[in-house]
Amino acid sequence: MGFQHSQYSRYPRNEIAAIMKRIEQFNHLQDIDAILDQILEEARSLSNADAGSIFIVEDDRLRFGYVHNDTLFKKNEANEEIYVDFSVPIDDQSIVGYVALTGKTIVIEDAYNLPSGSPFTFNSEYDLKAGYKTRSILAVPLYTFHGRMVGVMQLINAKDEKGQVIQFLKKIQDLIPLLANNAAVAIDRGIMNREMILRMVKMAELRDPTETGAHVQRVGAYSAEIYQQWAIRHGIDTQEKNREKDLIRLAAMLHDVGKVGIPDNILKKPEKLTEREFDTMKMHTVYGCRLFMNQKSSLDKMSMQIALNHHEKWNGEGYPGKIEDLMRPNVRPGPPKKKEEIPLIARIVSLADVFDALISMRVYKDPWTDKQAFESIEAGAGSHFDPEIVEIFFQILPVIQAIRLKYRESKMF
Ligand code: C2E
Ligand code: SIN
Ligand code: SIN
Ligand code: FE
Ligand code: FE
Fold first, then answer.
1. Domain CATH code at residue 293
2. Is residue 161 scored above 60 in pLDDT?
3. Which ligand 1 atom is the nearest neighbour of the CA of 269?
4. Residue 257 C-alpha to ligand 4 middle, in angstroms?
5. Catalytic residue check, 259
6. How many Cβ atoms from other residues are within 10 Å of residue 290's Cβ?
7. How distant, in Å, are the alpha carbons of 85, 103, 185, 219, 406 from that of 145?
8. d(CA 293, CA 303)
9. Is residue 10 part of a domain?
């Protein structure tokens, strides 16, 4: 890209290089949530901002997409705030709304003392609810390569070396839009990836109406959050952790695509399956696996592991077990697979999927109460589930609940 000349020549070379390095990071990431997380991380580190959030344009509103806040949220702790579900209109009643309305970058020294005659107002609702004090703000529009506005990034409370809140420096005011413009391309790709996977899920959903976009996004999000805590406990380095978390979210969404291969009279049977029917049903794991088997991307590899192993149980009583030739036409379940023989990611998705199936409506059963579902998960520790995964699940329960609220039925995101 032509950063060396024309409009960018006023930037010092080494700073452009640093920005390009940051932008490169975005290109390894696949899912919208991971991309938003990374963009905020880079923008905040560049500007030394205490907090920040990203809003995504959705129809005529801005939907809240992601938030960071060093003061309110502890690093490395599971955080339910990122799953809060709300949107604001694109108008002058909020700063992000005004940025989306006009496409202008807004710099504010003190949110509570806006210069008289400001064309926008500061909405202090969030501060009041969260117990936070916003002062300096830098809000920039996020455009795609083709000039379509996809969202707004708002950075809050720049700090000096002593940790005192200051205004955003002139240099930062120039650099952040440069980062933002390139981030927008990644955001676009992230949304496209999510939509593409949801379209694939929709195909399976035509067959099995319980595998909805909302169900799979919940399973994806529970899995990503459980994995993150597992990775922290096991000292996985940050870069690997972020990459894996990103992949798991998408791959977990595809855990049941193999149900496309199951006949309707079994899939949609409103009562208990016979033993023979359940044997057929079990093959959705192998069918799903086959969809990804010959592909080489990390996402395909992980999707394959999850589709194949998400019904294995810690004690070896799950299915399909160890199978030598997965392509054999009349493939049958094999010898038991147990404990660490089951890939970690599949042990995680297994719990996430069962929990969500229990609390959801199914053709063959009513939703369970939370209490029943929690008791069942707890009782499964060490038999159905990896006990450590169960422990982590209960440790991050507030996040699990926030995910349920965010991805209710009949919402695309
Ligand atoms: P699913 O409905 O998405 O359920 C996923 C997993 O959640 C199940 O895997 C099971 O481990 C757990 N689960 C769901 N509902 C219940 C329940 O009422 N009680 C208990 N104890 N566990 C539950 P599983 O059993 O391997 O089933 C895999 C898939 O097979 C299910 O996916 C569903 O599509 C189908 N299926 C299972 N049992 C029946 C049934 O009795 N009738 C019909 N029509 N389909 C069934
Ligand atoms: C969006 O695309 O609406 C924001 C991303 C998300 O909800 O995860
Ligand atoms: C891993 O897959 O990263 C860990 C191995 C395991 O515990 O299964
Ligand atoms: Fe399944
Ligand atoms: Fe499922």
1. 1.10.3210.10
2. yes
3. 44
4. 8
5. yes
6. 16
7. 28, 15, 6, 32, 29
8. 9
9. yes
The answer to whether the CB of 19 is under 6 A from ligand 1 is no
Q: Does the pLDDT value for residue 7 go beyond 50?
A: no
Ligand 2 binding site (Cβ under 6 Å of any ligand atom): 32-33, 56, 58, 63, 65, 191, 413
51-66 core/surface letters (b: 16 or more CB in 10 A; e: else): bbbbbbbeeebbbbbb
Does one domain contain both 393 and 362?
Answer: yes
**Ligand 3 closest atom vs CA 344:** 8
User: Is the pLDDT assigned to residue 4 strictly greater than 60?
Assistant: no
Partners of 166 in beta bridges: 158
Which among 36-45, 142-151, 393-402 has the top mean pLDDT?
393-402
Question: What is the pLDDT of the chain when averaged over all its residues?
Answer: 89
CA 75 to each of CA 35, 70, 126, 391: distance values in angstroms, whole numbers, following the listed order: 18, 7, 20, 20
Joined together, the tokens standing for residue 175 give: 């650099």
| Ligand 1 atom nearest to CA at 354 | 7
* Ligand 1 neighbourhood includes 362 CB (under 6 angstroms): yes
Confidence check: pLDDT of 362 > 80: yes
Q: Quick check: CB of 354 below 6 Å from ligand 1? A: yes
Q: Which ligand lies nearest to the CA atom of residue 267 in the structure?
A: 1
* CA distance linking residue 81 with residue 76, whole number of Å: 13
Q: Coil, helix or strand for 2?
A: coil
pLDDT for 14-47, tens place per residue? 776 776 677 676 666 678 888 888 899 999 999 9
Q: Can you give the pLDDT at residue 411?
A: 44
Domain that holds residue 173: 5-190
Residues 212, 184 within the same domain: no
d(CA 122, CA 96): 9
Q: Whose CA is nearest to atom 2 of ligand 3?
A: 344
Based on the fold, state whether residues 56 and 124 are members of the same structural domain: yes
Count of the separate structural domains present in the chain: 2
- Which two three-digit tokens encode residue 198? 């949801």
pTM reported for the whole predicted model: 0.82
Each residue's pLDDT tens digit, 326-344: 999 889 999 999 999 999 9
Q: Which of 81, 128, 87 is nearest to 401 (CA)?
A: 81
CATH code for the domain of 50: 3.30.450.40
- Our answer on whether the CB atom of 272 is closer than 6 Å to any ligand 1 atom is yes
The residue among 190, 220, 246 that closes a domain is 190
Q: Quote the CA–CA distance of 314 and 339 in Å, as a whole number.
A: 5
Pick the closest to residue 35 from 23, 45, 47 (CA basis). 23
Asked if 181 and 244 sit in the same domain, the reply is no
